[in-house]
Specification:
Elements: H1 2-23, H2 26-41, H3 44-51, H4 53-67, H5 89-106, H6 110-120, H7 126-133, H8 137-153, H9 155-160, H10 164-167
């Protein structure tokens, strides 16, 4: 199964990033990717021949994420260590804004978050997203519209979208 090993070496990082964007937790993202790859390994020859590995593995990861039942409690707060090194203000603000936006996206329902990640991170068309989720393209558009509307309605988003001159 050298083909499988080569695929994992070549695409493993991208698969982990995709999984992380879905769940927001590095360890859980690794678990989703690992479980999906275990399931794909058994059928690798057929996957390579019939479906094309990228779409199939991405769909397997997506299914792991969507079927995952254990949710973090709403009171759990993720915190990181503060770096001792000085960082320029613009870079620091970008990091703060990115974290704030991720926090807002992670608060979306699973399907809405999955649609937004597949659309804006993976750059997939509605038909491809629909195939991955097992629904229609119209349902994908509804999830995307509702997810984006929910983000726009959040007062924190207006702070993230302030004009550049206000950031200086």
């Amino acid at each position: 199964m050298e083909d499988f090993d080569e695929y994992v070496r070549a695409r493993g990082g991208a698969l982990l990033r995709f999984s992380f964007l879905l769940c927001g937790d590095a360890h859980r993202a690794e678990d989703f990717v690992q479980e999906a790859l275990i399931r794909c390994h058994r059928r690798w020859r057929r996957i390579e021949r019939d479906a094309g590995p990228d779409a199939y593995v991405r769909k397997a990861i997506l299914r792991q994420f969507l079927s995952w039942r254990r949710r973090r409690s709403a009171s759990e707060v993720v915190s990181g260590e503060i770096a001792d090194t000085a960082v320029e203000a613009d870079a620091a603000q970008r990091i703060v804004d990115r974290d704030a936006l991720w926090h807002l996206v992670s608060g979306l329902p699973r399907r809405q978050r999955a649609v937004l990640v597949l659309r804006y991170y993976e750059d997939l068309a509605d038909a491809d997203i629909a195939e991955s989720l097992g629904c229609t393209a119209a349902t994908v558009r509804v999830h995307a519209a509702r997810g984006l509307a929910r983000l726009r309605d959040n007062p924190e988003v207006s702070l993230l979208l302030r004009p550049v001159e206000e950031c200086s």
